[in-house]
Each structure stands twice: as C-alpha cells, then as structure tokens.
C-alpha cells in the first residue's frame, strides 16, 4: 500500500513523517505546490484519497479524485457529506485523528471496500458531479432567473 501527502503544508509535517515511518506500506510526502501536469500520475498511484479538512466548502482535489474513481475519506465539513451520500466516501468528524486513522486503516485492509467506494466515485464523476451536470444545472438556474425577471 502506497500513499502520498501532496501540497503546501501549513504545519510541521515531521510528526506525521515519524508516524508514517511506523505505518504499514509506504507513505510519500510532497510538501510543495503540485503542478497540474503531476496530478494524473499522483491520482493513478493513490489507493485512497484523504481530505481531512477542518473547514472547507469544496475542493479541487475532491473533484480530481472523483474523476479518477478514487475511494475517499473526507471530513464532514462543507459539501463533503453530499459526496459521501453518493457512496464515494467515508466521513469522519473534523479534527478527529482517531476517526481518520480508523477509517484509513479499515480501507487499507479492505480491497473490496476500496473498490466499492472507487466505483461510486467514478459513477458520481460521470453523473451528478460531471461537468455536463454542472452545465445543465447552471443553464437551468439562468433560465429560472430569466423567467422571474420577465
């Protein structure tokens, strides 16, 4: 099992590196800005994508993970619970490292659970979270607003 931590860290990652060294599998840290061209390779290598945000509405990483059909572990903040309702993610309370560790540990050990979440992520990316659906909803809103005005 491999994992990566990618992006600009806003904290000291040394304690995380020590924990990762003791964890099963291999954890890789990229504590820098990740260029768009690097994202496909990182997503293809990821077994699980974890977004343990404390506060967020949505995330570009979330939508990339959905597009790559990756199982997700998300903090229950912002719009993330809606993704979990699609069956694509496990939710954990924000700022709860024990719950995050338990969810990740369960998925690391369960190939079938990861596959199920990944299939739901791919379905969400081609359905309710697709660009076509976003365009459809945007056009419907514009039409509604025009009808109200007229």
Instruction: Please report the first level of CATH classification, the CATH class of the largest domain.
Output: Alpha Beta
Strands side by side in the biggest sheet: 3-4-5
Mind telling me the C-alpha Rg? Answer: 17 Å
CATH topology of the largest domain: Rossmann fold
Secondary structure tally: strands: 5
Work out the helicity level.
Answer: 40-55%
Main sheet: strands, sense, barrel: 3 strands, parallel
Total tally of structural domains: 2
* Form type: elongated
CATH architectural type of the largest domain: 3-Layer(aba) Sandwich
Textual characterization of the structure:
It is a single chain. The chain is α/β, with parallel strands linked by helices. The protein folds into two domains: 1-34, no CATH class; 47-149, Glycogen Phosphorylase B (Rossmann fold, 3-Layer(aba) Sandwich). The protein has seven helices and five strands. It has helices spanning 14-22, 39-45, 60-67, 80-85, 97-109, 111-126, 131-149, and strands at 2-6, 26-30, 49-51, 72-75, 89-92. The strands form two sheets. The chain has a three-stranded parallel β-sheet, sandwiched between helices. The protein has a two-stranded parallel ribbon with strand order 1-2. β4 (72-75), α4 and β5 (89-92) form a beta-alpha-beta unit. α3 packs across α6 (111-126). The radius of gyration is 17 Å and the shape is elongated. The mean pLDDT is 88.
């Amino acid at each position: 099992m491999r994992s990566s931590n990618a992006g600009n860290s806003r904290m000291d990652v040394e304690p995380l590196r020590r924990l990762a060294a003791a964890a099963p599998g291999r954890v890789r840290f990229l504590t820098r800005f990740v260029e768009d061209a690097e994202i496909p390779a990182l997503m293809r290598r990821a077994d699980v994508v974890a977004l343990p945000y404390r506060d967020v509405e949505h995330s570009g990483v979330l939508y990339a993970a959905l597009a790559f059909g990756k199982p997700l572990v998300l903090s229950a903040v912002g719009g993330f619970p809606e993704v979990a309702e699609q069956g694509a993610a496990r939710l954990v309370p924000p700022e709860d490292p024990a719950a995050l560790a338990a969810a990740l540990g369960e998925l690391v050990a369960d190939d079938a659970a990861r596959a199920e979440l990944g299939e739901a992520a791919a379905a969400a990316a081609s359905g309710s979270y697709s660009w076509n659906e976003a365009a459809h909803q945007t056009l419907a809103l514009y039409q509604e607003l025009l009808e109200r005005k007229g």
